[in-house]
Amino acid sequence: MTRHAHSPVPLSDIKVIELGQLIAGPYCGQVLADFGAQVIKVEPPGKGDAMRQWGEADRDTGEPLWWNVIARNKQSLTLDLRQPRGQSLLRELAREADVVIENFRPGTMERWGLGYETLSQDNPGLVMVRVTGFGQDGPYASRAGFASVCEAMGGLRYVSGYPDRPPVRVGISLGDTLAGLHAALGAMMALHQRARSGRGQIVDSSIFESVLAMMESLVPEYARAGKVRERSGSFLPKIAPSNAYPARDSRDVVIGANQDTVFRRLCKAMGQPTLADHPDYATHRARGEHQQSIDELIAAWTRQHDAQQVVDILAEAGVPAGLVYRAPDMLADPHFRARESIVEVPDRDGRPLPMQNVFPQLSSTPGRVRRVGPALGEHTDAILADWLGCDAATLEALRRDQVI
């Protein structure tokens, strides 16, 4: 039983049509579906979203697993948007929708007769969420924009890694998910405004700007201080102590004690309380100037203990510390279990499939994972019948013409 399994969900009255493929747009759809929106995932007949083939495969069935997460809680409708009849059906569906999500290159929807001006004529309250690499306008708008490129242009890649090596990428498609989160946030703001005005609008969420938005004070630091933020490895320059420290059992412990009061607690836990009053370490700026020496002092202490022992000592002392987790550590952790941070959902064969739960938690109307990603076209007939009133003969004709 998941948390609040029978509680109402906040977006149950919202109808969403999700177009496009891969990660950024579909992650926006995942967020909305997690909180109860009816999300209709439109896929090309016969092959579906490329995400159905991405990621590691189930060792028993050979089926890729990622699809079950990014398409969870959604319904699958097959529809060929390159055919005029498919475009006509999409226009009819959009009349009934609150939100349309698309992540094609700018201009694609317009070429298909599915641009916002067209769709909003019949549905003035429609919100169109447009997710791209570089946004809907500007000289780069028409470029292909995968997350890796946009993370680099948004500033993330340059500051990731070690100063003596080339930049590295984070081991997930962070730019895509950031753009999806901004898109979902934009959709909710646009729906809130629609409740006031009765009219929808376009939400323009680009990957490069979603990354740029996370880059803290990087731009004003250069503009006003002449400082280009560089790669620094496992720590942030001038923020100390905050690093990964080696333990006796060869595991690393991440410790964050850069605040004055927390640093004093760390020194006491290390059995060296007078360090907190040393002029080199007594203030935030002083510790930043003597970052290397303070890290060496802490590492000398952590090497005397096993990693879990270090975490336990510092937890008792009120100092933020934790192990570097992998998936097996998450599945075994009692805090993850207590908060149901990972939930088991029956897959399409009825076997329990663990995956991350829905975040953030809402106290009265929380989101929840109701089902894994659907089979291709699993809900086509039901959606076209319920939304558009298509009868069996119409559905058979559409299938014969490979429209669905």
What key attributes describe this structure?
single chain, three-stranded antiparallel sheet, Rossmann fold, six-stranded parallel sheet, formyl-coa transferase, domain 3, alpha/beta, 2 domains, 37% helix, 404 residues, 17 helices, 11 strands
Summary, kept brief:
The protein has 17 helices and 11 strands. The chain has 404 residues and is an alpha/beta fold.
Structure description:
The chain is an alpha/beta fold and 404 residues long. It folds into two domains: 15-214 and 345-400, Crotonobetainyl-coa:carnitine coa-transferase, domain 1 (Rossmann fold); 242-331, formyl-coa transferase, domain 3 (2-Layer Sandwich). The protein has 17 helices and eleven strands. The protein has helices at 24-34, 67-70, 84-95, 108-111, 116-122, 147-153, 174-197, 207-212, 218-225, 260-269, 284-289, 291-302, 307-317, 327-332, 334-338, 380-388, 392-400; strands spanning 15-18, 38-43, 74-78, 99-102, 127-132, 202-206, 242-246, 252-256, 321-323, 342-346, 352-356. It has a six-stranded parallel beta sheet, with helices on both faces. The longest helix has 24 residues, at 174-197. The chain is elongated, with a radius of gyration of 25 Å. The two termini are 36 Å apart. The model has no long low-confidence stretch (mean pLDDT 96).
Q: Which residues form runs of ≥5 with pLDDT under 50?
A: none
The oligomeric state is: single chain
CATH architecture tag of the largest domain = 3-Layer(aba) Sandwich
Beta-strand residue percentage: 5-15%
Please state the CA-atom Rg, rounded to the nearest Å. 25 Å
Order of helices and strands: EHEHEHEHHEHHEHHEEHHHHEHHEEHH
Please give the alpha-carbon distance between the first and last residues.
Answer: 36 Å
Describe the main β-sheet briefly.
Answer: 6 strands, parallel
Strand order of the largest sheet: 3-2-1-4-5-6
At the first level of CATH, the class of the largest domain is: Alpha Beta
Structural domain tally: 2
Tally of helical runs: 17
Global mean pLDDT:
96
The fold-level CATH name of the largest domain is Rossmann fold
Shape: elongated
CATH superfamily of the largest domain: Crotonobetainyl-coa:carnitine coa-transferase, domain 1
Class per helix and strand makeup: alpha/beta
Please count the beta strands (DSSP E, at least 2 residues each): 11
Helix share, percent: 25-40%
